[in-house]
Description:
Helices cover about 5% and strands about 60% of the residues. It is built from two helices and 16 strands. It has a 16-stranded antiparallel sheet.
Amino acid sequence: MWIVLGGIALNAHAQCTAKNEAFQSGEKVSYELYFNWKFIWYKAGDATLTFNDAVYNGKPVYQIDLIAAGNKRADFFFKLRDTLTSVVSRELEPIYFRKGAVEGKRYWVDEAFFSFKDGVSNVTQKRVRNHGEAQFFEHTDSRCVHDMLSILAHARSFDPSNYEVNDRILFPMATGRRVEEQILIYRGKKEFKAEDNTKYNCLVFSLVEMKKGKEEEVITFYVTDDKNHLPVRLDLFLNFGSAKAFLKEVEGNRHPLTSIIEE
């Protein structure tokens, strides 16, 4: 991963590991999902994001789980049942990723197995679709390869004190059948009001994919401007339209939410 901040590129391999400064075991974040259908926003389901201690191959790790499910009303337009699990080391190094997804009429399971040796990232990806046939994909890279949850854990411990608007963080990400170039772009600071009317000072980032030589925005997310760097809002740009996830409740956060704007 190459990180470009203020015009400085940092070596990638050193960025495979990081000190966790943001979350602790037991953190649970709940969201309400909204879909846009013909210019109307409506409640479409719920999602939970959890961070917990676990053991993987006899070693202590963090397990990150994201569960998203649409409600019956949303199922009429687009059925969504996604369960994502990421296992990272205590130094936030990617180890294992799994996504089980029902999206529309499609169902599949993706897995990714990560290893690092002699400065090289090795990723084995496995995809199983409805019919049960497994496909395998191998990839090696001189940079650190992430999955979509491990990069979230990693990014939460970034120090944003020297960020400037439009700073870019470049990294490769395993996406099921291939490893694709991704970019995090820092958009600046904004206020966000949650569903319970609590206001937060936030840092805003966009996740951008490189497709056919062009940048395509996938997610814009708001994280609290405090030590938690807690995701409180996500704007998602999907194949079938757009969606939003708004913070409903958080428990087990490691640091006080000093980003809350008192009125």
